[in-house]
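Might you be able to check the C-alpha cells below? Thank you kindly.
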Amino acid sequence: MADNSEAFYGSGNVFDDMGHPDAELKLQKSRLISAVSQLIKDRGLTQKQAAEIFNEDQSNLSKILRGHLRLVTSDRLMHWIHRLGENVTISITPCPKEQRPGVFVEIRPSL
C-alpha cells in the first residue's frame, strides 16, 4: 500500500494553517480555554463546581471546554480565570521583524 501523504511544518496556528477566518482570535480563545481547563483541574473542581463559580450552565461550560469557540468571548474567559483567583495581565510588546505578530497566553505556576 502506497503512502501518498505529505507532511508540512505548521505556522504555530492550526486555525491559520487550515484557512480559518479570524485565526488569531480563535487561537487566543483556544489558549484561554486551555488555561481555564488547567486551572479547573489544578483546583480539583468538577465542571459543575466550576460552572457555579462562573455563574454558567454546566452543559455550556462542557461544550466550551471541548472547543466550541463561538459560545464564549475572550473577555468572558479572562473573567473566569479571575473568578478562579488568578490575575490576568495583558501585555503589549513590540514584535521582532523576523516573527509573526501573535497572541500569547502564559500561566505562571504559584510559588
Notes: The mean pLDDT is 86. Helices lie at 14-17, 23-42, 47-54, 58-65, 74-83. The first helix runs from residue 14 to 17.
